[in-house]
Fold each of these.
Amino acid sequence: MIALAPSARAELAEAAAVKGRSLWEDARGRLFRNKAAVASLLVLGFLVVLAIFGPMLWPHDYATIYRDRVGIAPTFENLHIFGTDAQGRDLFVRTLIGLRVSLAVGVIATGVALVIGVIWGATAGYLGGRVDNVMMRIVDIMYSLPYIFFVILLMVTFGKQLVLIFVAIGAVEWLTMARIVRGQTISLRRKEFVEAAEAAGVRGPVIIRRHILPNVLGPVVVYATLTVPVIILAESFLSFLGLGVQEPLTSLGKLISNGADDMYKPWMLLFPSIVMMITLLAFNFIGDGLRDAIDPKDR
Amino acid sequence: MLRYALRRLLIAIPTLFVIITIAFFMMRVAPGSPFAMDRQLPPQIEANVRAAYGLDRPLIAQYGDYLSKVVRGDLGPSLKYRDKSVADIIVEGLPVSATIGFCALALALAVGVTLGVLAALRQNRPADFSVMAVAMIGISIPTFVTGPLLALAFGVQLGWLPSGGLDRGRMTLATLALPVITLALPQIAIVSRLMRASMIEVIRSNYVRTARAKGLSATRVIVRHTLRAALLPLVSYMGPALAGLMTGSLIVEQVFQLPGIGRQFVIGALQRDYTVVMGVVILYASLIMLMNLIADLLYGVLDPKVKYS
Amino acid sequence: MTTPRAAIAAMVLPMALAACGGGGDGPGDDSAVLYRGNTAEPFSLDPHQASGVWENNIISDMIIGLYQDDAAGEPIPGMATGYEVSEDGLAWTFTLREAEWSDGVPVTAQDFVFSMRRILDPATIAQYASLLYGIKNAEAVNKGQLAPEELGVSAPDDRTLVIELEYPAPYLPSLLTHYTTYPVPAHVVEEYGSRWIQPENAVFNGPYLLEEWRSNAFVHLVRNPNFYEAETICFDEVYYYPTTDANAAVRRVRAGELDLNTSFPGQQVEELEEQLPGFVHVYPYLNTVYYAPYMPEAPWDDVRVRRALSMSLDRQFMVDEILRTGQRPTSTLVPPGIANYEGVEQADWWDEDMDTRREEARQLLMEAGFGPDNPLAFEFTYRNSGNNPRVAPVVQQNWEAIADWVQVSISGIEVQIQYDNLRTGNFEVGDAGWVADYNDAQNYLYLLESRTGSMNYGRYSNPEYDALIAESNRELDPERRSNLLARAERMMLDDVAIIPMWNDTSRNLVDPEITGWEDNVSDKHRTRFLCRPGLEPGGPAAAE
């Protein structure tokens, strides 16, 4: 579910949920034959390295204000290759910092969703019966919360801390994950190897950990990959409403919304937008590629 | 089916109760007060103001008051807009938000389904790739970038359409065009991807192959057999789509200066207008539940296999 | 059996799309309509409930007080034709003109008495009543200690109004242009209570009437044929739009959908001057932005620390490069252009260059005991609105440039919370601003009086200062009064009770076709003085 921002995940949740076989070898081969996915992997890898190490190596600091270079267009003089922002700070290094923050928000919030969703879904699916009923009813109820409103309320209530953004968005995104994992778990439960383990007296948590979780990994990975761009978009959306990260830290969304305020200095809007688009495209292509690789029926 | 619907509606009541409770206490825990402003009130006067709105009573008592009022359909007065009640504000804003959302959804379905079917029928050919590339880009650009760009291009540079606001309060085709398109773009992208995937799956299914083998014309097969089955995943997407539209409408209403409820909510939350925030949350929660119910019922109409018990 | 379902599905979509395509009538000739972009949605149009500049803009098109603002924002007689002041300056007797409410009922002195009692009555819970505490017994009435009838306002007859004051206030005519002093129609308010302001009930004595008010969409006014100078009014109708998003508002001005707007993003000023030639109006404004240190707590109780922070801020850079619309950097509180006031000099460090100032600041902080072993670490909180988020990183950098043992974190906070924190003392150094309620220095300097309480954010407490202000309140001679106020301001600034930053400017976009617009320090522009070439004053009635 796409509570926060629109995405194509309903489709893959569905497709991924159909089959979760562990034919990892095959899958990898298929993934590497998918040109878009491979290219995206390379691009994303490059961006991640750039976001982590770029700011350390770049001659400018992201918070340094250059008094005499406010809002200058991209130039190789002094190495302002993306120009400077409205306060005279180097936009290239700020874009890298923004990318770092956005990626961190995306990945960590997805991690939060993953952990909650997988535990919740696997427990419900494995135990079944009344417990399953209650747990899934809770998920149903939470589905009908107007989520974006709650995220805004959360930000308003507890202030704009980076950690909170992870938690708020992650806590919203685990629902679909729980549903997928539960569906998978139910079908796996009836499989012979699970029944055999049960007959042998293996305890429930061990069965979940050893037999169920490895087998639901496929759809979960696909779903997680496609959740990251949704969360990055959600964060940018909060930034636009003035609820994002605090200055002098920044995020891609914040840079873009600042850039949109300065329409006449298009580089302030253009570069962060392009970086954000490339990042999101890469995640989406990788997610699509993964899905096709794990569930080759479509191609 | 009627019993199923009734049961769902009954479940909605405790759900709403939980939502109201969470929202109520979250709003009250938030720092700041609706009466804080640069002109500070003398303490005695502020005490009077708080008493007038019942805010001086224990939180639990206020909560009880609020619940009993809501049950009677009274959402209370706005704490910031002295001349209006929450009901006034919703009645004025809902038509705008609903119209934009409804039109955007309709547009997204019409365009998205067409593109998706086209891409599926031309699978792995240039038409397919270009549709999917556009769809990818559609879900990778935030609404708050496309909105201002569209307004600049069509509103300011070309002057074809108004760049914001309503025509003296009336919703006309011209004033709604840009906001609706902005709101629909990401949904078009999602719908077309969804449609393409399920269409491909159906085309390969046995009954369609059988129908083809029996010599039915391609068009007939598509319209009669394929499309209906392929629409199913789309129906279950309606709930999430609504959530996406609500999120988008917060942005679109701000970018295009439209008097909808989404904007009202954001302003209300920032100004600590407790009652307005609560009213909007209750409204949207009810709407989402209603839409999910309709989607499920529709699913049953379209898919004879589904039985409601 | 499959056909109907498929058919339904296939038909729903086009129908839905068609429903969205409902056309509207194109706009007719609207040259006699003025479209004003107006900052924000009014919280109330009842003058006794309003509190914002944007509300004032609308209300003052509908109601005329004893005095009113002319096109240049100067007080001119409104419902009053003149006044006499008693010798001690405490009793003002106003003579009222013959005028009618829009339903034909005469406007009387009793309406004013009713209105002033109403706003000060605790039951009205008016948020802004404290502005009238200069009127005799007003504070006691407002706090419920005296009955509203005890208020020092009386009406000997229909055309005579007497206002008694607690202390002489030479700025009274200016204060009487403020909406808190506006009359409301007693006969309508008595009938409808707080719903008197709904369009179907309301009557007014000003040039325009409230036709319709749609939340967050617009407020629609139409001309009042009963207005006492109706024959001078140009525009038949006015629409006020709440233009909360300045960028969207600029687009609407560029697209010709708004004739004027109350703001534009300062960073775009050069491009706007090019693209909208003649539209851009920038003018000094009676507003000071300042930062308040919370002085009850260390280290802010040390004047050296406060002085160091104040002098190390590069205001010129902020104004030139970030704000960019003629703001005036300052180290004083009362803005220039204020009436009845001579003003004070800038601080002694004002003309030194930044390096000298930083060095001096470092010395001061070291004297105060800070250094590499005892870093000065604190948080600067700012209102997350307008230009503040753009300036805050510069403030942070300026302070951190004093020495590497000065560590500043900055935090943008929603306006409502920031004011709440300021009021409750929950801040270290906080950003605030003040717009004049009425054109007098006292309106700024009372902020630092110890009796002002929570609005004295830094809790400045100096008996000598309080004594000077009290003395100025009793002083009848304008020159001596001005001198007393200036001495007080100098004293407060030498104590660095606040860190003044800049005086803001008003920024308007005005279609050059509109005539009658005069920039002024109060930034008040009543619709009744605006016109468009080709429009006949007096409207359709006059043309017959």
Amino acid sequence: MTRHHVSRRDFLKRTTASAAAVTISAPAIAEGAPGRVVVVGGGFAGATCARALKRINPRISVTLVEASHAFTACPFSNNVIAGLRELKAQQFDYKRIEGSGIEVTFEPATRIDTDARTVVLSDVARVPYDRLVLAPGIDIRWDGLSGYTEAAAERMPHAWRAGEQTLLLRKQLESMEDGGLVVISAPANPFRCPPGPYERASLIAHYLKTRKPKSKILILDAKDAFSKQSLFLAAWKELYPDLIEWVPLSKGGRVTSVDPSTNTLTTEFGSHKAAVANVIPPQKAAHIAAVVGAANKTGWCPIDPVTFESKLQENIHVIGDASIAGGMPKSAFAANSQAKACAAALAKLLAGEKPEEPKLINTCYSLVAPDYGISVAGVYEPRNGQLTDVKGAGGVSPANAPRSARQLEANFANGWFKTITEEVFG
Amino acid sequence: MKRIYCLAALAVLFASTSAAPAIDVAPAGAAACSGCHPMSRAVETPFTRLTGRNPADIVTATQEFRTGQRPATVMGRLAKGFTDDEIKAIAAWYAAQKE
Amino acid sequence: MTARALINVPPKAKRGEIIGIKSLISHEMETGFRPDATGQPIPRNIIKEFVCTYNGVEVFRAEFFPAMSANPFVSFTTVANESGTITMTWTGDNGFFATESVAITVE
């Protein structure tokens, strides 16, 4: 058997005959091998799943397809924006993953041939699979907000995929004069990291309070309620009185268009000219999900709650932000939790066994200040074809907890980031 | 379609005739814990390590989190989502894990 | 009962121009079909009627029903004929009444 993966360069060295061999996807199960899994996307979901598969059954051949050599984590990137952390602390490479028997292919998946069960990387490179895991994360809906184009994002950063955008927003805040208006536009549900816009507002407020105290933050929101809302609102009153104004949907908060030439955000009832505009736009499952037909009309991917197999495409499993995971939010913790459950199901399926019903957890910390953490937690299980909250479990931090409890949760937040990134990339 | 049927038959054949042991996966819920509780010694965090611990200690702690006897941040909320049997199975699995 | 209503009417328009008008009012729009914690139905509390007048002449009227969402948003168009005042009123259960007016200049 030839290598199951061939890079473009390798391919060019080979003859047509051998190239034909690599494009034929003879299912490995027929040869007695435990199977081939290709994971598309090397974020919290995909990298976790690849590693978990190898850990459960080292004989499974696992290929991770990821366009980038470095991963930049979104959790804690709000600290980078607020100058509390450097972007380097958010960045991870795939060396340890490559060292654990997983083949990592640094090329984008351009399409998937579902009949041949093959991931097409470029014009010539193909990777066959028995089971495919899609963990592609999100894409911005560039048609979702009038005036908000890729060029507009250079002036009005979204900073919703960590990296250059994160640094751009930070630089704009740093160069803003004291007394400037920071406008954050928050999208309707569902979107990546539901408490993220409000943690961001908090940490920007923390920065402004000490450096530029005459400035203000205006949050224009396309919804009337948000994650950990009462905790955020109470903390803002306590830590940043009169610094943050939140305008919900019912008070005309939904942004309907933006104009990057004037840095203006327009709602149904007014316009706001910003010194710094952070437009968090509507989102959808990343492009490849739509290309393969795993995304439905909502732009996200419906899945089976036990195996994470797509409800639209056989042998393709979708995990992380791209999936419609019932009650589970689009968080790094949820992605990691789903990835491990999916890996267990895949190992069983490839061995011809019945997958066990999983139980999943989400824990999501937000920092209102560097020493002030709040959390939401949940336990989930499959019920009626959906991942559903286990009744009586979960919930948010208590409303009237002492500052010591907030400090403790801030410590746990930091500890969580270290643990999860060690499990995924370390 | 024919090919798929054929493969399915082969898969069943393997499942029924293979002497290989069943795939051993973590019990329901166990895999999620390591999002916070590190499996690796390399990481320094305030979270308790679960690997290699006495399973009875894990069970007691989790049950006390569930009733509120033991002070907690998120564990009080999470423990309420698990039955005694699930907690015991998770504890036994972590106790048996090497780092 | 006070409610915060938002209205958006262009301050200036050309004679004969079709103008867009938007309104949003904070209101729970309780359907009357939901039970409370004790199983008793929560009494209906909805806006029943929305009316827009232009210099006293009715140009738009809407009847609201329990199926309408909380914080109803209404958008419609009319023809700008003359300078004057555009007034919107909302009336509903429990004596609910709100009104907002705005001036428009037609050239």
